[in-house]
C-alpha cells in the first residue's frame, strides 16, 4: 500500500519551531525599530551607538541564523524526516 500523500500532513507547531521563528525574526524587529538605536551615545572607541549597534546585529544575526539552522535539523531528525538534500 502506498504511503499517504504529503499534502495530507498538517504542519505541527512545537516549542522548537516557535524558537526557530523567534531566532529568525529578532534581527528584523531590532533593525526596523530605528527609534531604539537612533542616537549617538554611548560611543565605543569613538564610534557612535548608531553604527556599532547595527554592526553588532550583523554578528548576532549570524549566530541566530546558525542556531535556527541547527534547531531545524535536530527537529527534522527527531521527527524521522530525511535530512535536507537527500
TrEMBL record:
Keywords: Membrane, Transmembrane, Transmembrane helix. This is DUF3311 domain-containing protein. InterPro entries: DUF3311. The chain crosses the membrane at residues 12-38, 50-69. It comes from Streptomyces fuscus. It comes from the Bacteria. The keyword Transit peptide does not apply.
